[in-house]
Each structure stands twice: as C-alpha cells, then as structure tokens.
Design goal:
Blueprint lengths: L9 H15 L11 H8 L3 H13 L3 E4 L3 E4 L5 H8 L10 H22 L1 H21 L2 H17 L4 H12 L4 H10 L2 H20 L2 H18 L18
Antiparallel strand pairs: 1-2
Helix pairs in contact: 1-3, 2-3, 3-9, 5-8, 5-10, 5-11, 6-7, 6-10, 7-8, 7-10, 10-11
C-alpha cells in the first residue's frame, strides 16, 4: 500500500505519501485509516515521525484523529489545496517533541532548584497563580486551558531564576510546546485522566521547591518530564488482538 521511506526528510515525505495514497485509492471522507503502529511499519518510519505527519494533515483539514477510535479521512484535497498549505505549515521546520523533552530533562531539574532559592515574593506569587489556574482548568475538564497554564508554570519557574542566560536558553525551548504541530500531537493523546496525573506531578514539584529540598526538586521534576515523554507514545487507538506487536521490540 505504501512505499518504504528513506531516512531523509521523513516527516515531509510521509505527508506527501499519505496525500498521494488518499488521492489514488478509492477512499471516501469518513473512511478510517489503519492504526498508527501499522502505518509506521508500512512506511518504515518511527511513530514520532508518523504522528508529526498526521498532525500536519489534521491542521490542513485532511485527517481527523478521534481519541480511542482512530484516524479518519476528513477531506480529499485538490492539487491547489495541497500546494497552498505545503508551502505553509506543512513545510515549516519543527523541533520534534522527543528532542525538546530530552533537552528539558537535562535542564529543568537544575533550573527548578535555582528557582526555589531565587524566586522572591513576586516569583512565588506567579508560581502559585499558575497552579491555581491549572487546578481550575482540571476541575472543569478544560484540557486546552490546563495545557496553556502548564506551559506558563514552566516558564514562570525559569523566569524565577532571574538568570538571563537560563531564560534565553529555556524559554524558546518551552515555546516549542506551543508549535501547532506539537500542540496537535499532544491533544490527540491527552485525556482528563492524564491531566489529573500531570497536575499531581506539578503539585509535587512546587511543594518540593517550597521545602527547598534540592534532591526532591530534582527527582520530582525529572519524573514529571520523563512521564511527559512517555505520554507522547500513548496509542490514539487501542490495539486489537491482531495489532499487538509480538516481535519483542
């Protein structure tokens, strides 16, 4: 059904190949695609690369992802439509989520330790405000608001260090979480349950910072970011018995 894809320009090529397949097969709006795992194997790409391509196609209105159900065809694009959006978001460079989170795992635990001693009253007020807004969003089930305030909390921790080198390095990294493609990828897997788990992790981080316990700050922040990375691999569609990977990989 699909051709194997070489290692270069994978995200762009996956997008183009899916579009080509949609246009050349007997596919209708509302049809369901194969599960992510099967598509990734068919095209010889990683799940992260596939998810980036699917998110781009979502933003273009070509695919629709329904959590727990799978990936569906939302529209069959014309040549003109493809050319238009491929010159826009479809061709923009994106820092992939896994790379960004790995960098955050290396940097943010130490930043939180410094922020715990350098924040000052204004810094702590901002941190507490972010936690309160995250809690309000969690209670109301507003995932979008929760994620915005989650990002603001991490920014507030970096700003609380009052270190210009840290903010110049980390704030652009945190901004990658707001990239349309990355934001869409995370929205595809985020649930109320995950939001509650995430909130508890942030409460533990702020509590450790309040206590000034460097070891606990390091542990709680590292654990949270590693779990955030794990959450990116959650299946959009639950695997059926025939979909389970039995290769041991």
């Amino acid at each position: 059904m699909f051709e194997k894809i070489a290692p270069t320009l994978r995200g762009r090529l996956v997008v183009e190949q899916i579009i080509s397949w949609l246009k050349n097969q007997e596919v209708s709006v509302g049809d369901k695609l194969a599960p992510e795992r099967q598509l990734a194997v068919a095209m010889n790409v990683s799940r992260n690369t596939l998810r980036e391509a699917i998110a781009i196609l979502q933003l273009a209105g070509i695919l629709e992802v329904k959590q727990g159900s799978g990936i569906f065809v939302a529209s069959i694009p014309s040549e003109a439509e493809v050319a238009s959006w491929m010159n826009g978001i479809g061709s923009q460079g994106q820092l992939d989520p896994e790379t960004a989170i790995d960098a955050r795992i290396a940097l943010e635990p130490g930043i939180a330790i410094l922020a715990a001693t350098a924040a000052g009253p204004a810094g702590w007020e901002k941190l507490e405000s972010c936690i309160e807004k995250m809690n309000e969003a969690r209670r109301s089930g507003d995932i979008d608001s929760y994620r915005r305030n989650d990002n603001r909390l991490h920014r507030a921790i970096a700003l609380a260090t009052h270190n210009r080198f840290i903010t110049a390095t980390v704030l652009p990294l945190l901004d990658t979480a707001q990239q349309p493609v990355w934001y869409t990828i995370k929205n595809n897997v985020y649930t109320t349950e995950l939001m509650n788990q995430s909130f508890q992790e942030h409460v533990e981080i702020i509590s450790a910072m309040r206590d000034g316990d460097s070891g606990k700050i390091f542990t709680t922040m590292t654990r949270h970011l590693r779990r955030s990375k794990e959450r990116l691999t959650i299946e959009v569609e639950p695997l059926g018995a025939s979909d389970v990977d039995t290769t041991g990989d």
